[in-house]
Specification:
Elements lengths: L2 H4 L7 E3 L2 E3 L4 E6 L4 E7 L3 H20 L2 H17 L1 H11 L4 H19 L6 E6 L2 E9 L2 E5 L5 H14 L3 E5 L6 H10 L8 E4 L3 H9 L5 E5 L2 H13 L3 E5 L4 E5 L5 H13 L9 E7 L3 H12 L20 H16 L3 E5 L15 E4 L6 H4 L6 E7 L2 H9 L6 E5 L3 H8 L6 E4 L11 E2 L5 E2 L1 E2 L1 H6 L2 E9 L16 H5 L6
Parallel strand pairs: 7-8, 7-10, 8-9, 10-11, 12-13, 12-17, 13-16, 15-16, 17-18
Antiparallel strand pairs: 1-2, 3-4, 5-6, 6-22, 11-20, 14-15, 19-21
Helix pairs in contact: 3-5, 4-5, 5-6, 8-9, 10-11
Length: 504
């Protein structure tokens, strides 16, 4: 371990009741660029989880009693905190996630804006009826102690996405780090203690066992998860026993549809970036690129030409465009997908070079698969890496059917000039977000969600904010003066009477 790495070896702890905490068991965090350990982190015990929940419960009474403005001010203070430590976060993301400097800077740079925008959201009480002596209204109440799991690919972004609305609504939040990329989350919550009261925002490091404890815990009222669909299904099963409120932001197999009138050179740039940014480790990355047969060869060749110029290597090298994938599990899966393509005789339009000389890092070269069949693994599965299947299409209805032919439904993008034709295709896509002539255009006021196996619930925007509260009907009669009468029961319809035994 060199000197630069050694300074990260210690100093990462849980935060419980506003204070750092270690554990009897620790584990090493692997730098994906070298395949070597660079930091040591604790693994939370069940007793530490109980301490964290108890601290959050104590904090909830006073935190939920604060005004919207007071809690919004805390979010704005967190934004200032990130700006003050921006360069340190960039370097840490590069080291533990493997992002190139541009991508890491983009993640850190967007965090303060996300916090500030979220701080502007507010849920006002809604008066339903107002009559002499009685008022009926809807008000929004926090759940209490909540928890959220952070994914490895955007460790700071997901911290902000989860906590901003959770805390603004008056909840207390326990963050669970990614087991392979925990350092950014641990360091952020440590620094945040200078801004938030003890117990309001905590963080625990651990793996699947900790996640299971959080979901099963009877006093954790809500759980928000970002990760794979397979794990999301397991979370949903575990949460069912406690009838727990959930948000699941899961996988995607996003189609990009290129019309024959698209600008070939410009669209090729967008497609390559959309498929390989952050080494393809984005739920919203372009996973299947459908190119109209009239321009298929030209777009393919332009993507290949651009891919040849993209350096895959050390994130700290200024010339690097794409770093390694973040962990060995993803690395081995991607190698298996490439091997499957070759074994089945699919045409490989391009397979680049990647890595650092003598490194054990998890580098996957940009690989472009030329028109594989729709039932190929590389088309059916979410690859989560820089392996790009290009698919040829001819008819608009055909490409819609093929784009929708997946268990996922996260995002899609459409590229071209004929807006009538584009709109017709967009209206038929079964996804949470459609981008037209752009990609990954997100905003704090736009909802982010998936349909089908891509998720349950909403993140971001006022719709995501609503996930962190429950609506309460509040009916107030000012006085008990006057006779109280029982409401007249409704007489069931004949149809209702015929069905009355259905649920008996």
């Amino acid at each position: 371990m060199d000197i630069a790495q050694a300074r990260y070896a210690s100093g990462f702890t849980h935060i419980i009741d506003g204070k750092p905490a270690t554990s009897p068991t620790t584990t090493w965090v692997i730098n994906p660029s070298t395949g070597e350990p660079f930091a040591q982190v604790p693994i939370a015990t069940k007793a530490q989880l109980e301490q964290t929940v108890a601290a959050a419960e104590r904090a909830f009474t006073s935190w939920s009693a604060k005004t919207w403005q007071e809690r919004a001010d805390v979010l704005r203070a967190l934004a200032v905190l990130i700006e003050r430590h921006a360069e340190s976060f960039v370097e840490l993301i590069m080291r533990e996630v493997g992002k190139d400097r541009h991508s890491a800077t983009f993640e850190v740079g967007g965090a303060p804006e996300g916090l500030s925008k979220s701080a502007s959201h507010k849920l006002e009480e809604e008066v339903v009826t107002s009559e002499p002596g009685r008022t009926s209204k809807i008000r929004y109440r926090p759940y209490g102690v909540c928890a959220a799991a952070i994914a490895f690919n955007f460790p700071l972004f997901f911290c902000i996405l989860k906590l901003s609305h959770a805390l603004l609504a008056g909840n207390c939040l326990i963050l669970k780090t990614s087991p392979t990329a925990p350092c950014v989350s641990l360091k952020f919550v440590e620094l945040a203690q200078s801004v938030v009261p003890p117990g309001v925002l905590s963080v625990l490091c651990g793996g699947d066992e900790l996640g299971q404890w959080l979901v099963q815990h009877p006093r954790i009222m809500r759980f928000s998860f970002t990760g794979s669909t397979a794990t999301g299904k397991a979370v949903m099963r575990e949460a069912a026993a406690g009838v727990k409120s959930l948000t699941l932001e899961l996988g995607g197999n996003d189609p990009a549809i290129v019309l024959p009138d698209a600008d070939i050179k410009k669209v090729a740039q967008h497609l390559l970036i959309g498929a390989t940014n952050n080494a393809g480790q984005q739920c919203f990355a372009m996973k299947r690129i459908f190119i109209h047969e009239d321009i298929y060869d030209a777009v393919r060749d332009e993507i290949v030409a651009l891919a040849k110029q993209a350096k895959v290597g050390d994130p700290f090298d200024a010339e690097t465009i794409i770093g390694p994938v973040q962990n060995r599990r993803v690395y081995e899966k991607l190698k298996g997908l490439v091997a499957d393509c070759k074994a089945r005789g699919y045409n490989i339009a391009y397979e680049g070079e990647a890595g650092m000389a003598g490194s054990k890092g998890y580098f996957i070269p940009i690989t472009i698969i030329d028109n594989p069949p729709d039932n190929a693994r590389i088309v059916r599965e979410e690859q989560f890496g820089p392996i790009i299947p290009l698919l040829k299409w001819k008819d608009d209805n055909e490409v819609v059917v093929r784009a929708n032919d997946t268990e996922y439904g996260l995002n899609a993008s459409i590229w071209g000039s004929n807006m009538v034709r584009i709109q017709n295709i967009a209206d038929k896509l079964y996804v949470g977000t459609v981008w037209i002539n752009e990609w990954a255009a997100m905003h704090p006021d736009l909802p982010f969600l998936g349909v089908k196996h891509s998720g349950v619930g909403v993140e971001n925007s006022k719709h995501g904010f609503l996930s962190w509260v429950y609506p309460q009907a509040y009916v107030c009669r000012e006085s008990l003066n006057g006779a109280l009468t029982e409401p007249e029961p409704e007489q069931p319809s004949r149809d209702a009477q015929s069905r009355s035994g259905l649920w008996a």
